[in-house]
Write a structure and sequence with these properties.
Layout lengths: L17 E13 L4 E7 L2 E7 L5 H8 L6 E10 L14 E12 L16 H6 L1 H4 L3 H23 L3 E2 L17 E3 L7 E3 L5 H9 L4 E9 L11 E10 L3 H19 L4 E2 L6 E3 H8 L12 E3 L1 H4 L5 H8 L3 E7 L7 H13 L6 E5 L5 E3 L7 H10 L7 E7 L1 H18 L7 E2 L1 E5 L4 E4 L4 E4 L14 H4 L8 E6 L2 E8 L4 H10 L4 H14 L7 E6 L1 H8 L30 H6 L9
Parallel strand pairs: 3-5, 6-9, 11-18, 12-19
Antiparallel strand pairs: 1-2, 1-4, 2-3, 4-5, 7-8, 9-10, 10-24, 13-14, 14-17, 15-16, 15-17, 19-22, 20-21, 22-23, 23-24
Helix pairs in contact: 4-16, 7-12, 14-15
The structure holds one RNA strand of 77 nucleotides.
RNA sequence: GGGGACGUAGUGUAGUGGUUUAACAUGCGGCCCUGUCAAGGCCGAGAUCGCGGGUUCGAAUCCCGUCGUCCCCGCCA
């Protein structure tokens, strides 16, 4: 070993000892005489000191050293002089007086600052990711992620789960997200697909009698990026046999509650046990199936209050079966016309025709865009319904119900940001249950599964599949944290006939279904236990636990917005010979 | 596929009503300095203002195009 101790572990217990350390020069302070170097390794920083009167050779050797050089030093741990301790360093009471120096590797001036929390251009950070990862922020995030995964493995191991790997080279399933395809050399014109999730495989492990399975599974989806989406990401994939919805929910809730307590004790759970909402309820209250419940600003239906108010816009929409709903934007009552216009503009981006408002200024006066239709009685009714106080701003959107909910939901999120209502130290987990089993796809004129093809409907709703599929609920549950969907799961179908019925319902031709999912149908005929599971997203959860705004910050080597790895420059063209072996011809679309 | 923001020394920013010899900080180089910890002081080098074209006497600044990055919509069973 190049070192006897890590930089971070040296303390007063080592006083007088000779230690050998190795690491990076975090910072150098040259006083002409005495020179200090903050030596950094993964475990921390320790100050090393060279005095020309004591060791002139060492002092000279260290004078050429610069930031990020890798050096090895041998020296004696000594107490710092009175009043010279640094309370910001765990090693701040001591320093290492250097006797020998060995320069292991010099460094060019780095393109980004390692020793500063200055936000560098993301493109440069990604290009020099190995330097970016040296930074405190990234190091902490990697450690957090390790701790999260370690906790999960230990927790599940203690409860009898087996961690089992499943193939990365799998089979294409055009349902769902776009697949990443891998051409087969051996079978011309045929392709593997990278798994979007190990869904089918984990179910087949249940057929195999594993009963309790998990995997820290890499998943691949060829869709466009977002702040919380990467083309490859990691799920805690988990499946159990002989369980009902409640069992999985309890397990996941306990797992993550304990995980938070142990790994991020400084964070506070918003509520425990976690709130549970039905799909209908979250949509009505928050306008979003993954609501951030750290703040209120819930949506309120005032349709029946205004259906005969005389305001034609509202009246006509309600007469056509639409809705008028609002949000009480607490504390915005004194917003100027211009500021309201900005909110309106925001709502328009999502298709709202307009934004009606009723402001109650702090001195109790009312201002409204539809004032002339408002009788004092109606104003009182609306204020009561929406719990309005002086200083509040009531905002309304009218239109078709789903549209009103969605656009108000977005406005609510926006207001949450404007009003700074998201406490970053609060973790608001919640469950969303009772999703519709299928949703109508207007474009394709068919039913689509709300979750995935293997989700079981609620047993009592099975008869509805024949009569009114839109009314049936699925045994699906989503795990939501601070406004992000961080996991979803379901009780699965374990009966061939029900599975075929579902295929039929969503318009999957039986021949196609057998070709794509024949292995599942067949497996269900050999003693399949009832089973279900969940798949929490590790990256998103780590992102939120770390307080990071983007999923890239918790992934060592992420792709950029356009799905490119700018460090190695992937994807990149393949050699003609490779393509030929794979029976692939590139078509120039330009 | 669509919308928005951005692109100026190694890095982070300023300058955008047309005259700048492109500013500041930090980093880098040199000198001074024996107790700092974002050390300090002095001096210096470092930018064809993303790229291409146009308007103009004159463009970092205005116009068009293009490339790149980020955010959002669509998409994400």
């Amino acid at each position: 070993m190049y070192k006897t101790h890590t930089c971070g572990e040296i303390n007063e217990d080592h006083l007088g000892q000779t230690v050998v350390l190795a690491g990076w020069v975090n910072r150098r302070r040259d006083h002409g005489g005495v020179t200090f170097i903050d030596l950094r390794d993964r475990f921390g920083i320790v100050q090393i000191v060279a005095n020309p009167e004591i060791c002139p050779d060492v002092h000279k050797a260290l004078s050429v050293v610069r930031s990020e050089w890798v050096i090895q030093v041998e020296g004696i741990v000594q107490k710092r002089p009175e009043g010279m301790a640094n309370p910001h360093l765990s090693t701040g009471k001591i320093e290492v007086s250097v006797k020998h120096v060995n320069i292991l590797n010099p460094s060019k001036t780095p393109p980004i600052y390692i020793n500063k929390e200055e936000d560098a251009d993301e493109n440069i950070r990604l290009k020099y990711r190995y330097l970016d990862l040296r930074r405190e922020r990234m190091r902490k995030n990697l450690i957090l992620r390790h701790n999260v995964v370690k906790f999960i493995r230990d927790y599940l191991d203690e409860r009898g789960f087996l961690e089992i790997e499943t193939p990365i080279l799998f089979k294409t399933t055009p349902e769902g997200a776009r697949d990443y395809l891998v051409p087969s050399r051996v079978h011309p014109g045929e392709f593997y697909a990278l798994p979007q999730s190990p869904q089918q495989l984990k179910q087949l492990l249940m057929v195999a009698g594993i009963e309790r399975y998990f995997q820290i599974a890499r998943c691949f989806r060829d869709e466009d990026q977002r702040g919380d989406r990467q083309p490859e990401f990691t799920q805690l994939d988990l499946e159990m046999s002989f369980v009902e919805r409640e069992d999985i929910i309890q397990l996941a809730e306990d797992l993550f509650t304990q995980l938070v307590n142990k790994i991020v004790p400084e964070k506070k759970l918003f509520a425990s046990p976690w709130p549970r909402f039905t799909y209908t309820e979250v949509m009505n209250r928050f306008g979003k199936d993954n609501p951030d419940i750290r703040f209120g600003l819930e949506l309120v239906d005032i349709s029946e209050l205004v259906e005969k108010c005389g305001f034609k816009v509202f009246e006509n929409i309600i007469a056509d079966g639409g809705n008028v709903r609002g949000i009480n934007a607490k504390g915005l009552g004194n917003y100027s016309r211009k500021q309201i216009e900005e909110l309106t503009e925001y709502a328009r981006e999502f298709g709202a025709k307009g934004l009606a408002y009723l402001a109650i200024t702090t001195d109790g006066k009312e201002k409204s865009s539809f004032a002339k239709f408002l009788t004092p009685e109606l104003v009182e009714k609306i204020k009561t319904r929406m719990n309005a106080c002086p200083g509040d701003m009531l905002l309304f959107i009218a239109g078709e119900k789903d549209f009103v909910l969605e656009s108000l939901g977005r406005l609510r999120e926006h207001l949450g940001s404007i009003l700074k209502l998201r406490n970053k130290d609060t973790l608001a987990f919640c469950w969303v249950v009772d999703f519709p089993f299928v949703t109508w796809n207007k474009d394709e004129n068919r039913w689509d599964p709300s979750h995935h093809l293997f989700t079981s409907p609620m047993p009592e709703d099975i008869p509805l599949l024949d009569i009114d599929p839109g009314k049936a609920r699925g045994q699906q549950y989503d795990l939501v944290l601070n406004g992000h969907e961080v996991g979803g799961g379901s009780i699965r179908i374990h009966d061939r006939h029900l599975q075929e019925k579902v295929f039929e319902l969503i318009g999957l031709d039986m021949g196609v279904a057998r070709e794509r999912f024949g292995h599942m149908l067949e497996a269900f005929e050999y003693g399949t236990p009832p089973h279900g599971g969940i798949a929490p997203g590790i990256d998103r959860i780590c992102m939120i636990l770390a307080g990071e705004p983007n999923i890239r910050e918790v992934i060592a080597f992420p792709k950029n917005q356009s799905a490119r790895d700018v460090m190695v420059n992937a994807p990149s063209p393949a050699e003609p010979a490779q393509l030929e072996e794979l029976h692939i011809k590139i078509i120039d679309n330009k």
